[in-house]
Design a protein that fits this description.
Layout lengths: L7 E7 L4 H9 L1 H9 L4 E7 L4 H10 L7 H10 L1 H12 L9 H11 L2 H6 L5 H8 L2 H18 L6 E4 L2 E3 L5 H10 L4
Parallel strand pairs: 1-2
Antiparallel strand pairs: 1-3, 3-4
Helix pairs in contact: 1-4, 3-6, 6-8
């Protein structure tokens, strides 16, 4: 998002099941987007760092729509994270879910966990969502991307920020990130 030639290129590694990421989305992302990215001085790239099967299903659905809808869908997941968890929790506690084969797992999570309905209310047709969740290649690619980010940047938790190719250590909040952006010239 933003000016591809921005002097400050920020990457956020985030997990859709991470409460700290949801807090950053609520408290920091609007200002980052509306002031820093809109000014052309900062561009932001959000990279999914999937942590579990629920995260994987959510990411598969945020990528199911048009590319322009990705940030809005991601924001909606963060804004509704608690309600989504409440619906997914029974599946986390269901021992039968442990033996579900990978090609059936994500469609079951989508249907029984209410994810298909959640995304349908946000413009992703139910049949398209089911099709996205059935794509085990996407799930494997997400897992591979997590390993690459661990290898490249030593990502250990979320959110993690990379600015102009350098990992910013020990910063997981807007209050910690904003002064770093300002010191780099984003004013």
């Amino acid at each position: 998002m933003g000016n591809p030639d921005a002097p400050i290129k920020l990457i956020e590694y985030g997990s859709l099941t991470c409460p700290h990421c949801a807090e950053f989305s609520e408290k920091g992302f609007p200002k980052l987007r509306d002031e820093y990215v809109a000014s052309g001085r900062v561009s932001i790239e959000f990279r999914n760092f999937v942590r579990d099967k629920f995260d994987t299903a959510l990411v598969m659905l945020t990528h199911c729509g048009e590319p322009e809808s990705f940030f809005a869908l991601t924001d909606q997941v963060f804004a509704n994270q608690k309600d989504l968890f409440d619906k997914l929790q029974p599946l986390a506690q269901d021992p039968a879910m442990a033996s579900v084969p990978a090609d059936k797992l994500f469609p079951i999570l989508g249907e029984r966990g209410g994810l298909i309905d959640f995304f349908a209310a946000r413009g992703i047709a139910k049949d398209k969502a089911a099709q996205c969740l059935a794509n085990t290649g996407t799930a494997q690619q997400l897992a591979d991307d997590v390993q690459k980010s661990i290898d490249q940047y030593n990502i250990e938790g979320t959110p993690t920020f990379i600015m102009n190719g350098t990992k910013i250590d020990n910063v997981a909040s807007w209050e910690g990130l904003e002064p770093i952006l300002q010191n780099a010239g984003a004013r």
